[in-house]
């Protein structure tokens, strides 16, 4: 149990360290005169990253991470321009496609009732006597 806690702590430190290095690198590149788009360090990109990180930490179970990711992705895609084409035109379609893929590919929870009551079978022979 103790090794599991230490492993969890080491993973948290690694993730936090990587995040700090990435943010520092972006600030360094921006202050060096290299043109870094403004959307990289905006609130919606941070929300997108937080949603993906929470999803990864929880094995993509639950819906909280998905809500953060979708909201962050919608606002981030509105600011991205690729080859003079604004992605905001197709943001809704991309979100619907991603949501559909999630519904298709999410792990199935199968509940089987095989052997469901065999462990707790009662013997009613005493009642019939």
Automatic annotation (TrEMBL):
InterPro entries (UniProt xref): LiaF_TM
Transmembrane segments in this chain: where? 12-30, 36-56, 63-81, 87-105
Give every LiaF transmembrane domain span: 16-109
Q: Name one Pfam family in it.
A: LiaF-TM
Keywords carried by this UniProt record: Membrane, Transmembrane, Transmembrane helix
Protein's recorded name: LiaF transmembrane domain-containing protein
Which source organism?
A: Pedobacter chinensis
């Amino acid at each position: 149990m103790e090794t599991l806690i230490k492993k969890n702590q080491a993973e948290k430190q690694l993730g936090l360290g990587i995040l700090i290095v990435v943010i520092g690198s972006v600030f360094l590149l921006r202050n060096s005169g290299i043109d870094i788009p403004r959307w990289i360090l905006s609130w919606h990109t941070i929300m997108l990253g937080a949603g993906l990180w929470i999803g990864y930490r929880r094995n993509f179970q639950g819906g909280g991470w998905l809500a953060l990711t979708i909201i962050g992705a919608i606002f981030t895609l509105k600011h991205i321009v690729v080859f003079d084409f604004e992605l905001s035109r197709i943001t809704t379609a991309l979100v619907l496609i991603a949501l559909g893929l999630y519904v298709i590919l999410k792990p199935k929870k199968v509940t089987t009732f095989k052997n469901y009551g065999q462990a707790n079978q009662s013997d009613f022979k005493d009642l019939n006597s």
